[in-house]
Amino acid sequence: MANITKKVSWSSRTDESGAAGEDTPLLNGSEPPRRSRQDSLRARPKEIPHNEKLLSLKYESLDYDNIENQLFLEEERRMGHMNFRCLEISRWVICGLIGFFTGLVACCIDIVVEILAGYKYKEVKENIEKFTEAGGLSISLLLWAVLNSAFVMVGSIIVAFFEPVAAGSGIPQIKCYLNGIKIPRVVRLKTLLVKVFGVICSVAGGLAVGKEGPMIHSGAVIAAGVSQGRSTSLKRDFKIFEYFRRDTEKRDFVSAGAAAGVSAAFGAPVGGVLFSLEEGASFWNQMLTWRIFFASMISTFTLNFFLSVHHNTPGELSSPGLINFGRFDSETMTYNLYEVPLFIAMGAIGGLLGALFNFLNYWLTIFRIRYVHRPCLQVMEAMLVAAVTAMVSFTMMYFSNDCQPLDSNSSEDYPLQLFCADGEYNSMATVFFNTPEKSVRSLFHNQPGTSSPLTLGLFTLTYFFLACWTYGLAVSAGVFIPSLLIGAAWGRLCGILLASITHSSDSMWADPGKYALIGAAAQLGGIVRMTISLTVIMMEATGNVTYGFPIMLVLITAKIVGDYFVEGLYDIHIKLQSVPFLHWEAPATSHWLTAREVMSSPVTCLNRIEKVGTIVDILSNTSTCHNGFPVVVQVANSDEPAKLCGLILRSQLIVLLKHKVFVELARSRLTMRKLQLKDFRDAYPRFPPIQSIHVSQDERECMMDLTEFMNPTPYTVPEETSLPRVFKLFRALGLRHLVVVNDENKVIGLVTRKDLARYHMGKHGLEELQLAQT
Amino acid sequence: MANITKKVSWSSRTDESGAAGEDTPLLNGSEPPRRSRQDSLRARPKEIPHNEKLLSLKYESLDYDNIENQLFLEEERRMGHMNFRCLEISRWVICGLIGFFTGLVACCIDIVVEILAGYKYKEVKENIEKFTEAGGLSISLLLWAVLNSAFVMVGSIIVAFFEPVAAGSGIPQIKCYLNGIKIPRVVRLKTLLVKVFGVICSVAGGLAVGKEGPMIHSGAVIAAGVSQGRSTSLKRDFKIFEYFRRDTEKRDFVSAGAAAGVSAAFGAPVGGVLFSLEEGASFWNQMLTWRIFFASMISTFTLNFFLSVHHNTPGELSSPGLINFGRFDSETMTYNLYEVPLFIAMGAIGGLLGALFNFLNYWLTIFRIRYVHRPCLQVMEAMLVAAVTAMVSFTMMYFSNDCQPLDSNSSEDYPLQLFCADGEYNSMATVFFNTPEKSVRSLFHNQPGTSSPLTLGLFTLTYFFLACWTYGLAVSAGVFIPSLLIGAAWGRLCGILLASITHSSDSMWADPGKYALIGAAAQLGGIVRMTISLTVIMMEATGNVTYGFPIMLVLITAKIVGDYFVEGLYDIHIKLQSVPFLHWEAPATSHWLTAREVMSSPVTCLNRIEKVGTIVDILSNTSTCHNGFPVVVQVANSDEPAKLCGLILRSQLIVLLKHKVFVELARSRLTMRKLQLKDFRDAYPRFPPIQSIHVSQDERECMMDLTEFMNPTPYTVPEETSLPRVFKLFRALGLRHLVVVNDENKVIGLVTRKDLARYHMGKHGLEELQLAQT
């Protein structure tokens, strides 16, 4: 959509593989990418050119495939039945802890936001009331805007300056992580802290955001932390759960954490499990699913329990999630067959509006990548948005003359009288002068007639643009609640219009809450396009399965309509980050491609017993930066392929070099300590760079025996294998490197994630993305 | 648990592989299995010995792996973007049809059962009322027993004599199918017809059975039929959907069918999707999940619509499934934190009772396999059970003096007065003199006090044994409803006891319906042990997510407790059938086994250009009956392994032989028609046996070129690969044959499903099952 780029040749270099290409991939067809990166380090240019038809080389893959080397197999074979049972119990304990801490974090966020927002709205309300009569409401507006901006400034500063990866909802990042991509710093403790404080600030700052999306990210970070039994940031190692210090196990726990996050956010444990499976799992393992389910359950339960204590009703398990849609009573709110076409139509509207939202946000994000990339600019933009939000809300309330009688059992927390008569309140304030969660609930449950069509229409319009502007700011915040709010507003509007068209105030048409729910589902579906998990989340959040069927219909329609125009919001942001994301299947028309054409070659191979100097040189070669090296029997001639006998990773070689596991040819150093799996686990996941390891000239002459450490049975494919077949193997097993061999088992290439992610279906058939060091 | 058997040597022969072993696996360590099979064909012995530590060789695998041979690739490469889009649309259309027909079948079953059962109960009720005063109730009993037996006789005869695979709920068979095992005749039209009529007869016959399980099987058969666009039984080919005539596509549709079945049975579309994924998918594909979801939706919608028409309330979508738990109102039925331990305790009881049920049924099934294997015996047993059920029910009602006042808005369809005063009815008759679905609903929703503890206790006891005796009869019937009914009865009993202990008739303890629901979940979980799908099914059937959390807790507890004693009911029956079922993961302690030890060898290989006579001889060898043959470059010496270049299946060779795709060495027959994919698709899935193909002596001398037809890129593993690694590859990709090669890419063995299914965790660590021709 943006720039048009030239295709790079097949053998472009990747940082995953040991394949060395001759040609350098070009950024925008003109400038070598490495120079541009160095430039950007020296002095940030005013405009950063961006091209979404690129795949970034800076993202590495997770290894979902176990490295079954001799050390690993020996350990596994030593372990008895009881050991495995203990491990299984530890897994359950960890999942329980993940759920507990996720619930706790959600609870903290909820309570702190409640207190802060309560303080803010109270102050502003008093101020407004003071100045309504006297005139001079501009002072109230100023107070409100300043309070908002102050909160948002704090939230934005910590995100922009300390941990930019904590920006946004975190769902795209977690999607990528579960897809098998290592996003730097995404599951660190610091990210969690910034995320939690950031989301509190942005919600309290009155932005058009929700605190639900960030919960998913928070859950994932908690999972990554708890499951490793240590914190690298805090330099504490509890010496527990050491068995789980590898990507395979960690990723399983992160799935559980993400599910626990969804569960805490929406009170939807089943929805959480489905979310994790939908986003993460190319596999489905029953025990894993159980554990994810367990974590989700504990999470919602913990949140529920602590919130009930906070609300002085301990033991009353009525608030399972951060957002609570309130009770939809199945008696009063039924639907009928002839309403089904209406629901479908609303789904289509949701799809259209969602596509518009995504499209606007796409351009905005492109603009931000180009021009708003300095932290101070980002903070200023966030503050501006906060001030504008306050200003727009205030203006809307000021000019609205939709007054409603103040009911004693109304759900209004901060009813604003403004220019209404005594005993009445401003209806526009219901939706603007409130936290978004409460506004959603009012739209679902307020009695018919509590807001005029004009109020709802104006609200939809302004909030749509505010939410669109807000998503992508350097603050930690989610898009679920704003989407629901927009949808609920126009859904309620539809309901009111329908009732007025049919002139039947007592029929079922008259209940605008039902249409608000359907509208909310349609809008959310149109923006994020999640599927079956979203249905279940909505179903669980309403606490009523009666609406399961219409919600499904609406979501499917919204997805079909929306997909026709533009992708889902998360997918757009993933694409803009040039992440090598692997979809479910290879493009349909890619059967004409074979492994031979897809793979990177020639490959940098290592011998089974290799000179230390050679290894150091290969690892130090910054122009290739390979991560996996096939081990071959003997490289006789560098042009001729040699027989494959294993695969070794950069991280393993680094550990070997660090521990100086060398074999001196002259006198064999028998005192050498035997390396154990523990050494690899201790170094995981932050392996030192090769530059930090000193290898003397003497040592360079030593040899290293890789036999014990390499994976002796890497997965291989013959060179004639079609791309869909390669893709299927790669995706189903979560591989990082797939060796391509000829019919004599000799290495001729290596397929990595980027080689596969390059191909995607464009408007005009199969397209190929460029690889670049962005 | 039964006989103890000797282990067979590693190289035992399998019917899947091209591997030829020298030794014959022994049945019970004494008798060659093939002779015993021939014996059984000649004259059925009085007692059939059974040993569950066997894996039967009669089950073949489905090929979930596409055969990407030249023909296939050429076709795929010819197809443009639009063709793939059309295919995708066809898939959606098929899923819609599957859902529609499944809903229709469910609707038919429901209506016919309602009519028949209504007729029966009316007759018997009139008869009882006539004789209650006059004395001579034994005539009523006789009438009831004869009516029941008559219905059951019809149902049992069609099952036992025409289609034994239609017996039972069909869920174990569908589990196996989705696991990748070809159960003979399981998805045929005849099976569907027998299933549908059978279930109508057995439910109308008053057996302790449900009609929900069979719906899952019915959905699967419908899916298999619709997706192929033809019926082999009816000899009609509609010439549509020809692309889908292979195992990969068919299995996907069968998943959708099973989900549609669950959806129609319980009104649980999400639960249906989860069921299919839990049982079937070793993969998770988003588009597939969507389609499954769509089929489920259409299915429940169709059922709902037609039932609403039948009930003269068209358009009122209130009965989404065959079983309807009725409305659980969230206002009156809440639960509190201190009830959670109670729920867990009830889960444990459910687990214990479920284990007892399964254990009794296990011994009964062993007994049946040994002694009740003749169809006429089976019919007689079924009739006996029907008569006994009537007799027991009658006795219970006769001796019960639990009379309840007859309420005008009571849900009783056939209130029996018996010896109660006028205006009262017999409470025992509520549960016995009714279809099981309605009894479940009464137990959930009747007012507190409608049945005495004694009634409930006696009912639980008798129904438990009746249901246990019934499951496994040669009738088509499910175990869901009886389980729910038993659980609801003792759950309600628990509720009543709790209320009487706490002496608080007005507190929430007093609502026995809540405990009935929890008890039903616990009992069902204890018997079938399904997990997350069952939670969602229960949640959707109650139409209320408030109970989601307690139901989860109960199901988890029931599963943990039950698994401690004995497996789930379906797993027991799968095991008793000696099916080579692959679980989620390889046994934990199997890392010491490698592909070399697991594989079958030596392997019967074919040359790329092979003599027709050789092929015919290999295929005709009934003692091996191999299904897949590695194609090698040249077998120089049969002892030395040759280089792998492809894999070909028996079914493909049969088609090639049938179409005489020979190359005559002397004069090249250029007029030969080029074989197309269509020829293979037309022959699918009932490939003729080799005996039916006549090959003349001349033709035997011809050669056959396999290059175009073999899969040139079969998946391979090196011989040192550990069993878990082999297992993971095999399971994740749904393979049928996995070639084991040495480091020169030469074939040294073949791993098939049975080689992997042989290893399982027993009480004393890893155990190995025997292979036999049972």
From TrEMBL, chains A, B:
Cellular component, GO annotation: lysosomal membrane
One function term, GO molecular function aspect: chloride:proton antiporter activity
Polar residues composition-biased segments: 1-12
PROSITE patterns associated with the record: CBS
Pfam families: CBS, Voltage_CLC
Region: Disordered, residue numbers: 1-43
Transcription regulation among keywords: no
Subcellular location(s) per record: Membrane
CDD domains: CBS_pair_voltage-gated_CLC_euk_bac (cd04591), ClC_6_like (cd03685)
Annotated TM spans: 92-119, 139-162, 192-210, 253-276, 288-307, 342-364, 376-399, 454-474, 480-503, 515-539, 545-566
Membrane topology summary: Multi-pass membrane protein
Keywords of the record: CBS domain, Chloride, Ion transport, Membrane, Repeat, Transmembrane, Transmembrane helix, Transport
Bias-annotated ranges (Basic and acidic residues): 32-43
Domain CBS: 710-768
Family: Belongs to the chloride channel (TC 2.A.49) family.
Name of the protein in question: Chloride channel protein
Organism taxonomic ancestry: Eukaryota, Metazoa, Chordata, Craniata, Vertebrata
Gene name, Swiss-Prot/TrEMBL: clcn7
